[in-house]
Structures are given as C-alpha cells and as structure tokens.
Amino acid sequence: ESGEWQRALRAQFPILTGHPDLAYLDSAATAQKPQAVLDAVQTYLTTTNANAGRGTYPWANRTTSLVEETRDRVRRFLRDPDPERSAVHFTSGTTEGLRTIARDWLPGFLVDGDEIVVPVADHQANIEPWLETQRQLARQGTHVRVLPMPYQQASGDYDHTVLARLAGPRTRFVAVTHVHHVYGGDMNIPRIREAVGPDAVICLDAAQSIGHLPVSLAGLDVDFVAFSGHKALALPGSGAVWARQARGPRFVPGGWSGTPHTVGIVSLAAALDWLEAAGTDRIERWTVALASRLTDGLRHLDAYEILGCQTSLAADSPVQRRQGIVTFRHREIGSGDLGFILFSHGFMVRCDQHCQGSAGESSESVRVSLHVYSTVEEIDRLLSVLATLG
Ligand code: PMP
C-alpha cells in the first residue's frame, strides 16, 4: 500500500522519470522538484510576474499578496501556535537565515558575560555565524563566551550530559540542529530546553527536517527556525526564517527594501502544499524505512563502517531515531574513489567532508540521503554494488 502511494508520488518528478538509469541519493544537498512546483513557477511567470511591495496595478498587488500568503503558509506548515506574533522572513536558504539572525538580531540580545552554545560537529552554517557574532561583539568590548556542545556517537545525539554541566544562568542563546546532516539523528530538542531552562533562546537549524518529517512548533519550545526551501522541494535560492518574537528584541530584518525572490517564494508555497498533501508523517516513515534497510544491509558488509549511531533505529529506543541520511566509509577505498565507482553504476551520492564543523570526523565518507521519491530498489541495488567492493 505504501509502495503504491510512493510510486504515484515519484511519478510526479520529471527529472527522475526522465533518467530511469540514474539514482539520485543526494537529497540532503538539494531535493528534486515535483511537477506541481514547476507548474506553479510557470503559471506565476506567465500570468503575474511583477515586483512585490511596490506598484499599484494588479500583477504587483497579486505578487505582494503571494509573498504575504506564503508567510502564512510557512506558519501553518510549521503548526505555529501563535501566528499573530511570529515573523517569517524569506532568505536564500538556511545559511543566509542563520547569518541574518547572527548579524541582525543576536548582537542586540547578548550582554557582557553571556554565554552561547555552539554545536561543534554541526554544519558549518550553524557554527561560523555564531563565532562571528562573538568576534563582532568583542570588537565593541562585549565579551561573550562560547560553550562548545559536543555530539555523542553512542546515542546519535548531542552530548546532553556535557550541556547540562556547562549551561548556567548566563547561557542565553543555543544553536542546535533538528536533524544532523551527516549522522541523520533526529536530535532531542526538548532535552536541550530542559538543560538550558525557560529563558534561553533556542535557534533551530531545520535544513534537514522541514519537508522530511512533521515539524510542529507547538511541540518544540524554540525561538527561531531556519530552513532551506530548496531542500524541501522548492526552487534553489528559497528559504525562510521563522521567529517567535517572545524572548528578546523583535526580529526585524530587511522588510520591503529589496526585491524578494518572488519565484522562489511562489515555489515554496507550492512545495509546502505538495508536502502537506503527500503527508510529512508518511514521508518520514518511508525515508526512515529506507535508511533502516540501508544500515541493516551495511552492517552485514565488513568493509564498511557507518558513521553516527550504530545500534538501534526503533522509535522507542533511547538512541535517537535516524532520519533518511546514512553516512559510511569503506575501510580501504577512499570516498572520492568510492563516489566515482558508485556514479559509474548510476548512483549520485555526496563524498567529501559534508561541510561539517571542525569537530566532525566525516572526512573520507559517503553520504546517502533520501526523500519521498527514493526507492527500495535503489537501496537494494546500491547494497549489491557495495557488496562487490567488500
Ligand atoms: N544546515 C544543515 C544542517 C544543512 O544540511 C545545510 C545544507 N547542507 C545547511 C545548513 C545549509 O543550507 P543552505 O546551503 O541551503 O544554505
């Protein structure tokens, strides 16, 4: 039954149906686009295209409304419990979103002697902006301490023991990732809130969770969410920051002073509609099942070592659930060579250090990342090719 459901969805991705001999397994880098997103872009450009926030004729007014409607669309998609008070700001992706928070908002929130938590094995996009804030404030004589939050292999999550030991009353800002882009773990955000208390601001890098699993702000006590539209089936260069506006100063970036990426915003609304209709809960079940199939297969192949949590993928286990990202290495073949061999068999995977922060150990590894269009057949074919290299 879920096979039928998935085949019908996969058939809506023209780039995939057009290349039946290739397997796109790099969705954590960027996702493919369904026909509905391509149609929304085409329709907008052929019926409505104008600039937003200026102009008084129908196309311009309609463009302005589409941008505003998409802000509400993002809030609904995230199950925003207080949409009257939140802000949605469009960005080119997660990197720009996190940088905007770090540059425009965080310096006005922190005072001398405050501490910020930075996860050292995360994506660089969730490390460097916070260190830059620290440097910027130091130049003005405000000294902020960085508490490095480690990742723990055994649990597939952050090291919550270390965080609980480090965090104190001066810990006012915490950067975390929702789903780790190398290890695939679904990080325990409620435990972060427990460790840092009710007053700290939590900023969530949701690049690998939005569009892959249901994300409900009602159940996550966080203040900022940054994500990339292009990883959630929308066009490249689209993304957003959601800001709760409850702790600290208001988040007021940009406004209408520049031309927004209207086509990207239109594509984002269409992508969120498509994802909601498909069901993010079903998408999650599908990609988690494929990732389990891949890790189970890899565990039987002695030549490979899986990075991140090895033990269990069960939803009720004490280790974190693995989402649709599996990173592994061959004990003898380097990742560049392995990537080359895999592409000769039609597999597109990521093989480098995955933009991971300095404390990461993902160099020389291959990352397979999935989305709703990924198939059981692709995983089985990949495993049989990997087995021949064992
Ligand atoms: N954070 C994480 C966890 C990511 O996986 C990525 C993309 N690989 C980013 C941030 C950066 O996203 P973007 O390139 O869309 O800005």
TrEMBL record:
Q: Please tell me whether the keyword Cytoplasm is annotated for this protein.
A: no
Q: For this UniProt record, give its keywords in alphabetical order, as a comma-separated list.
A: Pyridoxal phosphate
Q: Which Pfam families match?
A: Aminotran_5 (PF00266)
Q: Which reaction does it catalyse?
A: (sulfur carrier)-H + L-cysteine = (sulfur carrier)-SH + L-alanine
Q: Which GO terms describe its molecular function?
A: cysteine desulfurase activity
Classify the source by domain of life: Bacteria
Q: Which PROSITE patterns match?
A: AA_TRANSFER_CLASS_5
Question: What organism does the UniProt record list as the source?
Answer: Streptomyces alanosinicus
What name does this protein carry?
Cysteine desulfurase
Which prosthetic group or cofactor does it need?
Answer: pyridoxal 5'-phosphate
Q: Which family does it belong to?
A: Belongs to the class-V pyridoxal-phosphate-dependent aminotransferase family. Csd subfamily.
Aminotransferase class V domain residues: 24-382
Q: Does the keyword tRNA processing apply?
A: no
